[in-house]
Structures are given as C-alpha cells and as structure tokens.
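Sample entry (318 residues):
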Amino acid sequence: MTRVLDGLERRIAAALQVDGRASWRRIASVLGEPERTVARRGNQLLASGDVTVAGMLPHADSVVLRIRCAPGTARTTTEALAQRADCTFAYMTTGATDCVAELMFDAGMLPKVLGTEIPATVGLRAAVTYPILRYFRTIRGWRFGPLTAAQTAALTADHAADHTDFPDGDELTAQDLRIAGVLAENGRAGFEEIARRTGVSETTASRRTDWLLRRGHVHLRALVEPALVGLPVEAVLWIRALPSRVDEIGRELAGTREVRYAAALAGDHQIVANVTVPDSASLYRFITASPWAAGVDSVETTLVLHARKRGGRMLGVG
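Predicted structure, serialized as tokens:
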C-alpha cells in the first residue's frame, strides 16, 4: 500500500513546490510551525526521496512520443526511453498507446533523434511524434493545494515562476554549465557545496546560481509522486480542438489543480495534458463537467499504469 504524506509533510512539500531553495526557517515562518520541526521533517522527506528538488536545463526543441510496443515489451520499451538523457518523463499507459514519453534536445537534433534513434528503441512497433509548440503548464507550475494564497505569495521567489518559454540571448559559460549540473543533481545544494564542486568562490557560486535561476536557464522543481498526496489516479488526455480554441483551452487547463502538465502539439491532437485525481469518479467529472471540456472536439483518455521517469529523474522500478 502506498504511503500518504501527513498534513505537515504535505505543506512542506507544497512549500518546496513554490520555492525549492527556500530555507527551512522561511518555510517554518510561513507555515507557522517550529523551525526545528520543519527542518527535521523536511530533511526526512528529501532523504527518503518522497520529495526531490532538482534542476533542469531547458532545451530549444521538445516532442511527446506515443509508442506502440510489441506484445509483452511495454515495460522494457518504457525503460529504454527513460534511460535516455534527453527524456524528461516516461510512462507506461493503457489503451492503444503502450507508453508515452517527452524528449527535450538542442536545436537541430530533431531529424537525428526521431529519424534514427527512436525507431531503434527496443520493443517499438510504431511511434507517433508530436512536436511541442508551447507549454501551458509544466510540473514546475503544478500545485496540489494545501497552502493558502497568502502562504504561496509569501514563498514565491523571482525564479519560482513556471517558465514555459526557452530562454535566449544569453551565452552559458563552462562555469555556468558546471553549476547547472550541480543544481540538476540537487536543487537545494548550498553555495559552499556548489563552490567546492565547481571550483569557484562562494560569492561567484551565489551570483551565478541566482542569475541562472532568474534568467530561466535552470528550472527548479520539487518532484513529489501524486499518490503520496492522495492523487493515485493519473491519466494523459489527448485533446482535439479548433485552432482558434487551443490557447483558451490550454490556459483553462493550466488554471486547474488537477493538471500537472499541459502543452500545445503539432499533429492530429492539439493539446496533451497530464492529470492526477483522487479516484476514477473525479477523473470522469474532470473530463465531462469542467468548463474547458465544452470547447473541445474530443478527448482520448489513457491511464498511467507506471511512471518510470518524471522531471528528468528516474523513479522506482515498480
């Protein structure tokens, strides 16, 4: 049986979703809890892996893949996709699609990745690729709800916004890339650790870390499994809509608590959304009775059977 976080653990996890680098003192002050208690419980969450704060470098191009697998190979194929360095998430799903994955890579790599590498994936029988045109929400912007609006505002840092556009106009140095690498492993790494691991002074580590985060060159995200916060039913929605309605529907989806991720696609579906809810009845209501649903032509629903990778981090085999 999956463990479920208790009330304080959920609030700490939610605070880290807002600002993954917020100090325990600041979080304790906003939550109205003793600092020692918040620090102890927060460190336990991080040590156990129930919550992970990790950085991710954005890339110019991204695609969502829908994969059909040879019989009996869905788990193997999902694993192969998850092991790719450019894979941000990999899910085994129900329906005609056996697995769904997102890949992010540098400009110009699309023909090589989709034309040569993906067709060679073990177990793959057929693949449909959907280039992402824009993000409405990434998991960085997902909030599962235990904080008040005032608490969220008090924790929000300049770099905590859900950046959905690729940053441009800045050249990253080798030093910047080393710092970004440390943040990718541990988004809460202190400046002393960053300085020691990258060979710079603490002052430089502080200044460049702040610059990387503020400019959107590193996206920090607190990763927590939906089931741990009482949302064990997860689905991927494939939405068809008129071009004139795509932006409106995408924004409506991004404004709901149920949606962890939503993006506009190029292909026979115009929007994909990753949804987490408490039970099947809640999923039915979300699909059939939400305001956004009135504007769509059709919705194809696939349930997530197993998440092997999220936010660029490998999860348990399950």
